[in-house]
Amino acid sequence: MREPRQLIHGSELKGDGDHWRRRIQKRTVWILAITQVVGTVGVGVAPSIGILLAEEVTSNEAWAGLARTASTLGAALLGLPLGNLAARFGRRVALTSGWWIAALGGLLLVPAAQYEQVVLLFVGLLLIGSGSAISLQARFAATDLAADAHKGRSLALIVWVGTIGNVLGPNLGIPGRILGSVIGLNVYAGAFLIAGVCMFAAGALVFMFLRPDPLMLLQRHELQARPAAVPARSKGSFKRIFQELKINKRARYAVFAILSAQVVMVSVMTMTPVHITHHGGSVTLVGFTISLHILGMYALAPVVGHITDRFGHRISIILGLVLFAGSLISGGLWPTDMNWIMTSLIMLGLGWSFVNVAGSALFSTVVSDETRASAQGGVDALSNLCGAIAAFVAGPLLMFTSFSTLTVIAAIVLLPLTAQTVFRPHSA
Fold first, then answer.
1. Is residue 317 within 8 Å of residue 260, measured between CB atoms?
2. Secondary structure element (H or E) that encloses residue 162, with its range
3. Which regions in the chain score pLDDT beneath 50?
């Protein structure tokens, strides 16, 4: 059913228009949730089957390490351009483009896996990183029309439904083997074919059903509310984003929280499988531990969102810092006890969830209209870049020191955020 003309053109989003705004917000969240599940099934294949493929195709640990970080680097490189695309043309165009770029990456990995093509492997994994970038942008899209008091839970819902895809994606090997046996592909090629189709389908769903575009609708309303304002789509450069961070204290704090949580989580999580195997742990134990960590990251996101909306961003970030502390202390004191390592990884995921959801919701609330979509894409790009650097640095640290030392360094990284949160409450 077609929405009223005045709503689509943004002339009324207050008074009686609040009903229509809530209605479109509810529809938008449902569409984003469905596409998030479908798309992240494809994205989830990269850190599992993608890693195995990298080791098999390259037959070189150094090249395999670079291949493993390719999808993360792809997410970092594509985050800001996709954010700028949203600022200029809306969420629908940006999300569709992001999912279809990722689908192209997935399909390129089919011949890469089948014929062991190194160049296609790197290009495919780089492009599939677009799926990670756009799944992050989807959480911000869920806040465009949400009331300030509900931004946390709207954002958290999209984070939460990604759990389904992130859990299913690493297990595409089984259907990949079945499909491959039917059409003559090996297990890796079959898995990436399924991943590519899933990400293409996610883009198609957004393209067909994300109407009206929530960001375009919000921008039209803001332009009518302040006729002299410059439309948000015209201002999306790096320079303007950094200028805003210089003067917007709360936005700067939110970005700092997001980046700190990402660095700590990625550095410890990336090295935990290596640490477990070095102490005689099985591949099954590694998979189980990482699955528990992923559940910690995503499973309680709606609860985290509710806590953020109910008690404030600062309380949620404090809770996240407490969980981070528990994770790093338990992992550092008992690094050879696998039960404590699993407990540490669960708390690490929960700590990341609290800080990331609260920081993202705060940023979405306080960032200016002129830079909203571009800045959100920039933050995601910077977060992925910091994560890639953290993963790269954590390897030599573990090699030349110990897992306990790695947890101590991670704790030191959190000290500035802890001090700012506790002693400067006005920032949050």
1. no
2. helix 151-168
3. 1-16, 228-236
The domains located in the chain, with CATH, are: 1-222 (1.20.1250.20), 234-428 (1.20.1250.20)
Tokens of 151: 């931004």
Q: Which of 238, 252, 223 is nearest to 426 (CA)?
A: 252
Angle between helices 301-311 and 151-168 (to 10 degrees): 170
Q: Is the peptide bond before 212 cis (omega within 30 degrees of 0)?
A: yes
What residues contact residue 33 under an 8 Å CB cut-off, 6+ apart? 157, 158, 161
Angle at 287 between CA 274 and CA 272, to 5 degrees: 25
The identity of residue 307, as a single letter, is I
Rounded distance, CA 34 to CA 48, Å? 23
Looking at residue 236, what DSSP letter applies?
Answer: -
User: What would the two tokens of residue 25 be?
Assistant: 């917000």
Tokens of 89: 């043309």
Chain Cα centroid distance, residue 195? 18
- What's the confidence (pLDDT) of residue 300? 86
- What pLDDT score does 407 carry? 93
398, 231 contact by CB (below 8 A): no
Nearest to 253 by CA among 398, 363, 407: 363
In which residue are the tokens 């509900």 written?
Answer: 150
Q: What amino acid occupies position 288?
A: F
**Cα 213 to Cα 24: distance, rounded to the nearest angstrom:** 9
Compute the distance between CA of residue 381 and CA of residue 387 in angstroms, rounded to an integer: 10
Q: Which of 289, 294, 54 is nearest to 169 (CA)?
A: 294
**C-beta of residue 121 within 8 angstroms of C-beta of residue 53:** yes
CB of 290 closer than 8 Å to CB of 325: no
For residues 60 and 116, is the Cβ–Cβ distance under 8 A? Answer: no
Burial class from Cβ neighbours inside 10 Å (0-12, 13-18, 19+) for residue 228 reads exposed
Which tokens belong to 279? 């102490």
Phi/psi-derived region of residue 148, left when phi > 0, alpha when psi is between -120 and 50, beta in every other case: alpha
Scanning 367-402, the segments in alpha helix (DSSP H) are: 372-400
- Considering just the CA atoms, what is the radius of gyration of the chain in Å? 21
Euclidean distance between the first and final Cα of the chain, in Å?
41
**Tokens 């970080």 identify what position?**
69
Reference 224, options 3, 71, 12, 1; nearest CA is 12
pLDDT at 12: 43
List Cβ neighbours of 208 (8 Å cut-off, separation of 6 or more).
none
| pLDDT score for 179 | 87
